[in-house]
Amino acid sequence: MAYDPNSSLNRPDLQTSPPVPPRKSMTPWFALAAVVVAGVVVWSLMSGPSTDPATTSATPPAATETAPTVQPTTPAPATPPATGTAPATPNSGTTQP
Prior knowledge:
Number of strands: 0
Shape: elongated
Strand content: under 5%
Radius of gyration: 48 Å
Mean pLDDT: 74
Structural class: mainly alpha
Low-confidence stretches: none
C-alpha cells in the first residue's frame, strides 16, 4: 500500500469532528400535552350531572284538569260624546313658534 499524503488518517489535524446531532424537537411533547388537556376538558364536561329522563321525555304528561270553557261576551254599547263641548282642534288660528 502506498503512502497517500492527502489521506486524513495519517494527519490528525485534518480530521473533522463528528457532526453534532440535531437537538430533539419538543413538538411531539406539545402535541401530546394538547391531546391530554383536550381529553381532560371533554371528560370534565361529560361527567357533569345527568338530566332527568322524566322531564325530557317526548310524550307530555297526562292532563289532570280540563280548561274552563270560554263564554263569548257581547261588547258594551258605545257611549256618544258629551254635547256642549268644543271639538279639539290642533291650531286655533294662532301661529305657534
